[in-house]
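Why does this matter for the project? Reviewers at the last site visit asked to see concrete outputs rather than summary tables. In response, this paragraph embeds two records directly. Each consists of the residue sequence and, immediately after it, the corresponding structure tokens. Nothing has been edited or filtered.
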Amino acid sequence: MRAIRILAALACACMLTGCASLLDREYTVVEEHSSKYWESGTADTMRAESYQDIVNDLLLLVGQHTENAILRLYGYEDDTVVADDLERAASEVQLETPMGAYAVEYITSETQRQRSFYEVSVRVGYRRSLEQIQAVVNATSTAALPDLLNAALMAEKTELAVRIGYWNEDSASRVEQTVEEIREKWDLTETPPWTVAYYPAEGKAGLLEFIMDGTQEQVPEPEPEDAGEEAGQSTEETAEGSTEESAGPDGTENEKNG
């Protein structure tokens, strides 16, 4: 009996060894308050030792809607390299990541060199509220959109943000088709069109925003360029007409009767 157990254990070990190559994948996990990204003993201070660490730190701040934070950069010896990495990381988070493109208005930083690290004061400005960020729904692909949109309409929501894990060449057309089908199903074809925004705007979208009440940002219409000129001409013409009417036959002004 013991021999059978040993043979079974060896067989399982061989099977696991053969599958090792399939399970061997490199990946990065960003966890809140991970010891890798948060300075020990300092609750509001983060740490980074590389460019990717800076990007991950900024993404953690955005996910928590944090406006002000301190970053300590270790392993950097050159002020120029620090400035370049901070600028590139801020640009990548704001323009190239789905959540950054959706939620961030700007990222600024001020750096001071300390004895063994650089201390960076980071400020993040947002164009989305904490509630909007927390309300973002995760979906593996656009196939989940019909259920999500139906649920949003049943709950009488006017906006829906969905983070998409898988995006291919025909995903955008599927999104448009889904919107048309949902609007037709809910008898909304005669209502104002929905606004669908893709984040980031270029490349593969990772987050979709649906505004379903038909409202869009209103831009004030500029006044016609000749409006002022016409108004001026009308005033001049009126003035001229008044002058002519008040003039007598001989070209002299008539005196008003007292």
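We now turn to the second protein, recorded in exactly the same manner.
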Amino acid sequence: MNEYILSLINTLFESHSMTLEQYRALIDARCVATAALLAEKAAAVRKSIYGNNVYVRGLIEVSNICKNDCLYCGIRRSNRNCDRYRLSKEQIMECAAEGYRLGFRTFVLQGGEDTYYTDDVLCDIVTDIKSQYPDCAVTLSMGERSRESYASLRMAGADRYLLRHETADKVHYESLHPVEMSFDNRMRCLHDLRELGYQVGCGVMVGSPNQTAETLAEDLKFIEEFKPDMCGIGPFVPHKDTPFRDHPAGTVELTCYLLSIIRLIHPPVLLPATTALGTIHPEGREMGIQSGANVVMPNLSPVSVRKKYELYDNKICTGEESAQCKDCLSARMESVGYRIVTDRGDIKK
């Protein structure tokens, strides 16, 4: 590792900010030694704020019906091989009850942009979860909605909202999405969510088609400036029924490298070690935690629908009961010196 790259890492560690050109240089300098140093510093920073705690979120995949046709996604509307489903309010509440019994204190409701989930329907679900489990946080990941919709859901009790920006480069964004989707609208959503008082999550697919070191540098600069409360960094994994079926998957190495950099950019950020990481490498989630991540999200969805929520091929943990998912992840975290904690796990600013 040369002196310049070492100076960049020290600059990031101390000031949490770099120029686009410096981010690009750090991305280009990725090697075993650079990755190890970044991971060491990221783990130290994370430990100074969160100790060895890893927060657990109960993921409820409410619907794989989606009005959008994103080129990378297995539940895109034009995929006629997708076996569609939608959970009822009663099923969602059963998942929450099971999760609460297992110790979960955050529920993440995630789904495609299913028009069934109007503000009235979704607000009713959020209100009931919050009234039955007032010590829990509700996170929504239901795509792009109007500012008025986000405001209604916030009033109903939603605490957090996850909306991956996918890429901070407009041209790159347009290469991944159909013409009716807008980069500017995605950014509008993120800023609306911030202004409405949500804990906000953005995020990137690592290794997505047409991604370059330049576009990744733009992502890092966006994350630096936006300062999300949560940031979902997971590898792109192709799906057989999409236009990108033959594109290679992102790598665990680059994903973990970026996790370390993001921890140094915004030390208190909540960073998940994603299911996609565990899909492309048998120890991917452990590697993510060792690189600076501090969140895992076991699945609370009914086992009968888990295989159907297939954003990408070969998704793991589709046949396990909720308790198995949690116990498996707990053992995995303990194997690398961390422990799952089951409080709300809010960001520590």
